[in-house]
Amino acid sequence: MAPGNLVYQIILVLLLCSDDAVGWYWWCGEDVTINTPTPMEALSGSCLNIPCTYTDITIDTAQSFTGIWSRNTPAYDQNADNVISVSGSKSYPMDITGNLMNRDCTTTFHDLTQHYEDKYYFRIENGPNKGTAKCSYLQIRVRDFPWSPSIKVSGEQTEAEVVTITCSAVTPCPHAPPQLTWDLHQGTSHITETNITEKNPDGTIVTKAKLSITLTDSHDGKMIKCSAVYPVRRGVSKMSDSNITLSVTYGPKDTSVRVSPSGTLSTGQSVTLNCSSRAKPPVQKFTWFRNSSQGPVSVSEGDTYNFNFTEDVDFYCVASNALRTETSPVIHLSVTVGNNHVPWEAILGAVIGVLAVVFLAVSVWCFKTKCQIQKDKPQAEVVQREEENIHYEEIGLSKLKPKEASNHEEKEDPVYSHVQVSQAKPAEDTVHYGEMNFSKFSPKVVPEKELEETVYSQVQGSNSNSGEQFSDGVDDLYAKVKKN
Fold first, then answer.
1. Peptide bond into 39 cis (omega under 30)
2. Separation between Cα atoms, residue 42 and residue 47, nearest integer Å
3. Is pLDDT above 50 for 52?
4. 3-state SS of the chain: helix, strand, coil percent to 5?
5. How far apart are CA 360 and CA 338, in angstroms?
6. High-pLDDT (> 70) share of the chain, %
7. pLDDT, mean of residues 136-158
8. I need a labelling partner for 385 at 20 to 30 A (CA). Which of 92, 104, 139, 435 fits?
9. What pLDDT is stored for residue 193 in this prediction?
């Protein structure tokens, strides 16, 4: 062999088989090649599924097949300690589960620990056909902590869009896949979706959970969390999680108008209107409209609008961004003329004041009227009682003879009744008279006590009967009345 060819072969071996292949510098034109993901990573205490296929060797399906995994070196010795798996044997931690006749060398490595981190070489024996994959080896790594799941949102994160959120977790051991759980961080409890396992193009397994959401502006900025719990040996589990924050775009919301100054407005006063709205992306354009008899009229653009009042008017604004537009509620501005505006509070106060004055006046009048009635009532009752206590006796007046009267006057001490004849009273006054019979008194001795008890009664008579009972020129008549 020429020296140049030897140098070439040495360099090629060093390039292709340099990783810790101490002492093994032969030609890598191997007769067997395996296809497997490398490196592969396992979780300590769990298993590792190794997808594997082999090529570049002639096989005879009539012959038996044996697959062998050796550790750290491609050299094969059936009794060597580096042999870690032989197909058909259960005494090794690695178990070839694939159908070697179909060139499938898929293998499961059970209960891995960091002690098993190394390179592994595959050998196939099929009757006279034998070969070892010297350079296409498998690198295995073992970790103590699980992988964080990945979260992906499919579709555009826009208001009203339905998006699918997928949580994915690597699954090195399909026999004990991780359990995925959602946490939406929106006041809801944990949501557990049905987990599904899928095979990647390289043969590895992944566990997924999917969640569909119709987006609204309230989802913007919300964090979504996915947790993965991996079961390991002896009932122990290991957990990891990941989260994402949603960024949802939406049209203008809560569009409103603010008036400055607020309160009472007067004709000719300068007024500023401000339009505000929230949106993502931000509002790109504000347009002001005034209602008129012909319909809405565009009067300005921008988030503020300044003008002088002259009449009652209605305004509203329209906010828009790349997604849509929103119209604010209509605001009515009532303008008062000059400074003659009287606040409704003052009007109400004046009305209450007038009512209070009227009520006070009525109360005073009622009080005075009641007192006057109570004052006059006793006087009326006294007059009435006095009128009820007046009794008149009917006096029958007969013609008295002067001579007889003279005789009696000499012999007796009479009791006199003074009868006064007055003018007749009007017809409406009714006078009741008691009848008194004046006759000759028998001479008798009147006791002194009775003389002291002489009572004079004034009798007022009517002028109508004076002509018949009294002589002309007589004004006073006396009747002798004995006190009973």
1. yes
2. 7
3. yes
4. 20, 35, 45
5. 36
6. 65
7. 94
8. 435
9. 67
Bond prior to 252 in cis (omega within 30° of 0)? no
- The whole-number pLDDT of residue 356 equals 85
End-to-end CA distance of the chain: 194
User: The tokens of 5 are what?
Assistant: 């060819």
Please state, in angstroms and rounded to a whole number, the distance separating the CA atoms of residues 417 and 397: 12
DSSP string, 172-223: S-TTSPPEEEEE-SSSPPPB-PPPEEEE-TTS-EEEEEEEEEE--GGGTT-E
Q: Which residue ranges form the domains of the chain, and what is each CATH number?
A: 3-143 (2.60.40.10), 150-245 (2.60.40.10), 255-333 (2.60.40.10), 402-480 (no CATH)
Q: Between β-strands 458-461 and 416-421, what pairing exists: parallel, antiparallel or unpaired?
A: parallel
Most confident of 54-58, 399-403, 476-480: 54-58
Cβ atoms within 10 Å, residue 438? 17
* For range 400-416, the mean pLDDT: 41
Residue with tokens 């006749």: 101
Which pLDDT score, from 0 to 100, does residue 159 have? 95
Beta-carbon contacts of 382 under 8 Å, excluding residues fewer than 6 positions away, are: none
Q: Please report the DSSP string for 217-284 in residue order.
A: GGGTT-EEEEEEEEE-GGG-EEEEEEEEE---BEEEEEEEEEEES-S--BTT-EEEEEEEEEEESPP-
Q: Is 210 exposed, middle or buried (0-12, 13-18, 19+ CB in 10 A)?
A: middle
Q: Are 156 and 95 in contact (CB under 8 A)?
A: no
CB 219 within 8 A of CB 153: no
Across the chain, mean pLDDT equals: 76
Rg (CA), the chain: 67
Separation between Cα atoms, residue 87 and residue 96, nearest integer Å: 6
Average of pLDDT values for 259-263? 87
pTM score of the predicted model: 0.59
With CA atoms as reference, report the closest residue to 223 among 197, 194, 257, 185.
Answer: 185
Per-residue CA distances from 207 to 43, 142, 147, 329 (Å): 15, 19, 12, 50
262-309 pLDDT tens trace: 877 888 889 999 999 999 999 999 999 999 989 999 999 999 999 998
Angle at 26 between CA 119 and CA 75, to 5 degrees: 45
Whether 168 contacts 206, CB under 8 Å: yes
Give me the long-range contacts of 29-32 (CB less than 8 A, separation at least 24): 30/56, 30/131, 30/132, 30/133, 30/134, 30/135, 30/136, 31/56, 31/57, 31/131, 32/56, 32/57, 32/122, 32/123, 32/124, 32/131, 32/132, 32/133
